[in-house]
Amino acid sequence: MHDEVSSIGIYGMGGVGKTTLVMHMYNQLLWRSDTFSHVYWITVSQDTSIKKLQGSIRRCIGLNLFNEDEERHIAVEMRKELMKKQKWVLILDDLWNTIEKLGVLVKVKGCKLILITRSKKICQQMDTLHIIKVKPILEEKAWILFIKRLGHDITLCPEVEQIAKSIT
User: What is the pTM of this model?
Assistant: First the structure.
């Protein structure tokens, strides 16, 4: 919270666990209200537009702009509203494209923007200050985790074990 990093980009291939990792962080932040006053999560669809995304953010932060169509004006108003809230975290999950004129890239101490995407390029284009790559776990570790979740006292027949190993 007290560092200079206002934006974090988390990227990696689909299914590697990016969203699960950040969901854990999100839940922790919700329970620890002493760190951030407001924590927002928005899932961005692949075919989203700036207007749809701004609408989602406006609903989350409680900003009502009736009959407003100008993206730049909305961006300014969202920035003002977020500045009032001071300590906040906004998580944008499943970002597929760079989004300009969004209105949330506020570099204010105590405020964080977390982007989850498959592309390092998007993290770079969105000027995230810290970029983290999430990699898949090794096959051996995946198997150990699978067996641990299944239960140590269960024995698999060779055919089922072969299928289970190929899945993990």
Answer: 0.79
- Both structure tokens of 28: 């922790």
Rounded Cα–Cα distance for residues 43 and 154 (Å): 38
- What are the tens digits of pLDDT across the range 99-117? 766 666 656 677 888 999 9
Query: Interior CA angle at 30 toward 15 and 49, to 5°?
Result: 55
The dihedral formed by the CA atoms of 98, 91, 70 and 58, expressed in degrees to the nearest 10: 170
Q: What is the mean pLDDT of residues 39-61?
A: 85
CA distances from 120 to 8, 85, 95, 126, 135 (A): 11, 29, 11, 10, 13
Among residues 129, 123, 94, the alpha carbon closest in space to that of 108 is found at 129
CB distance 50 to 101 below 8 Å: yes
